[in-house]
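Before a colleague's protein record goes any further, I have to sign it off. Alongside the sequence sits a line of tokens, each denoting a local backbone shape. I want your independent view on whether this chain really folds as the tokens say. Where you disagree with what is written, explain briefly why. This is what I was given:
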Amino acid sequence: MLEQLTGQNKDTAIIIQPVKKHDKSKHSIKDLTEEAEGLAHAIYLDVLEVHVVTYDRIQSGSFFGKGKLEEIADRAETLSPDIVIVNASLSPVQQRNLEKKWNTKVIDRTGLILEIFGERAQTKEGRLQVDLAALEYQKSRLVRSWTHLERQRGGAGFMGGPGERQIELDRRIIGQKIKTIKKELQDVRRTRELGRKNRSRVPFPVCSFVGYTNAGKSTLFNHLTNAGVFAEDLPFATLDPTLRKITLPNKHDIILADTVGFISDLPTHLVEAFRATLEQITYSDVILHIIDVSSSDYEAQIEDVVSVLKSLGIEYETDPRIIEVYNKIDAVEDEDIRAEFLRLQNRKNSNIICISALKGQGIDLLLQKISENMTELYFEETIVIPQSKGKAQSWVYDHMEVLNREDQEDKVSFLVRTDKATKQKFDKLFA
């Protein structure tokens, strides 16, 4: 896999960032281009140049006007990149015409993100979801001269490689593959749903991580769990959901769930393919929204995440389960802005916690906040244990929150705060 994208022989790319004149985008041009470069680096492309191209209106046949087409063609001829990335959505006709005009492979934002997802998916469900999204994308692009499906390597297969075998696909074959994958996905999801129902019978509370891609979710997840989840300064470093159990300072056990990062203009094919996975967030008892406040674009990124959560039926502004985690607070250079974030954290009933997942700053405060948000999931109960059962008493201290203890001649009464799963475990061990 990725023989040509690793080591010394990286594929080269030019990035084209279209910007409509007089369009007030919530994302700055600088952040758009930096994100596009990050996406390219995520599949180990060597970016030669980034061009910001303004336009009045989109040309139906080529997206760009004649002058811009010639300008980019000259740069492509000079630099001879392996691929040109247009950080926008292209129609099949536009993509084909740009390839002819620039005499090189061209992929759009959707194709690039699908390529990354194809490289990163590890679980069976993740691979099936990516394959489904990729096939839906390909289905709309079956044109006779579409040659960049040639491939013999990993990824979603939109970049191809010289000398590799061309994949001959038609709508009937793709349609059959889509049907097969959808059936496999139904089976996988049915199994996961049974697992979720089993967990609900012995309920450990679930705390899900959500956030814009590269916000630091996996770094925080690793800090809390020592899970060793792949965490790099790259978009979509984590694709497949990861679950780990941890014990909070008040002795209560919870399950942490790391999820795929969100991104602006997430391709429709991917939103639909990953909807079943994302819907698991709605079952969470606590939702941690991890925000990279060191990014100048963090407010726009918050809007993108909120939009996805609302599409899942989560009312962001009023949902008591949500905790906003302002990550990378140590990387905020402006002291006044950092002080403002901390002031927001210290407000009464604030749902904001400032942390540095990398350095461990603020983690104790975050765990305390999670504990507070989960208090309603717990109940108080009196447990009476014979004085001779020292092991059972020790187990109570290790796994429950002891509120009061009363010693009598032959027994000990504990007033504890616990959850259903822990109480059931105690009854099973010491009945």
